[in-house]
Amino acid sequence: MDRCLTSDIVIDSRGIALEGLLAVPEPVIGIVAFAHGSGSSQFSRRNQQVARALNAAGLATLLFDLLSPGESRRDEQTAEFRFDIGLLAERLTDAVDWIGQDERTRGLPIGLFGASTGAAAALITAAGRPLAVKAVVSRGGRPDLAGEALATVRAPTLLIVGGRDTQVIELNRSAARQLQGERQVVIVPEATHLFEEPGKLEEVSWLATDWFRTHLGAAAEQGTGGGPRW
After folding, report:
1. Cα separation, 22 vs 62, whole angstroms
2. Phi, psi of 119 (to 5 degrees)
3. Beta bridge partners of residue 158, listed in sequence order
4. Neighbouring C-alpha atoms within 13 Å toward the C-beta of 211
5. Counting Cβ atoms within 10 Å, is residue 216 exposed (0-12), middle (13-18) or buried (19+)?
6. Which CATH number goes with the domain that contains 110?
């Protein structure tokens, strides 16, 4: 990577302004949009660490808030938005459409990185934008919350789960069986839900980078990054 250009951006999602940070390395082979969950934001330390690894590998990243500032303040008190998977998916879908239209990112193959409830939003978006979304990675996610959309997801999907996150492992395995495209469940030994143990988030970053470089790179070579989004 020669350099990475960063820009503060605002995505208009049906009248709601969503703030974010776009980072585009040069050269670039694709872009990954992040969908956080459980009350997190674009400033998630874990997602930022993964994003830096992706940037170093030639992948652009879009870290953005799925909720407006007012919604975030309300969610801190009620937690009503963080589990509204339909709303989160709607916002992420609008971000995918924004990527397809912005001059800095138009034509790039798109990947989605979802954490916690954001993983379900990522899979619903992948189902709704099958020609745009070329790969999905879930970190400690709840893909099961995508419901019926799982059966229509064809984007190659990597589900990363901590070995100590025992309650979520089987949920991920069950969700993987419903996916229609290439899929893989990777258990990171001795890791808990947030991958806070030494070296575990680095392992997540490596797995995600390899998955996105493989699948977004293939899409770029085939010239299928742009075009219709649905």
Report:
1. 5
2. -65, -40
3. 137, 184
4. 29
5. buried
6. 3.40.50.1820
229 inside domain: no
Whether 59 contacts 215, CB under 8 Å: no
The answer to whether 34 touches 88, Cβ cutoff 8 Å, is no
Tens digit of pLDDT for each residue in 57-109? 999 999 998 888 787 788 777 777 778 899 999 999 999 999 999 999 999 99
For 59, the domain range is: 3-21+29-222
Instruction: Provide the sign of the torsion angle of the four alpha carbons 38, 43, 46, 50, taken in this order.
Output: positive
Q: What does pTM read for this prediction?
A: 0.91
Domain assignment of residue 60, yes or no: yes
Q: Are strands 3-13 and 16-26 parallel, antiparallel or unpaired?
A: antiparallel
Domain presence at residue 228: no
- When divided into structural domains, the chain yields a total of 1
Would 147 be classed as within a structural domain? yes
CA 147, CA 141: separation in Å to the nearest integer?
14
Q: What is the pLDDT of residues 113-170, one digit of tens each?
A: 999 899 999 999 999 999 999 999 999 999 999 999 999 999 999 999 999 999 899 9
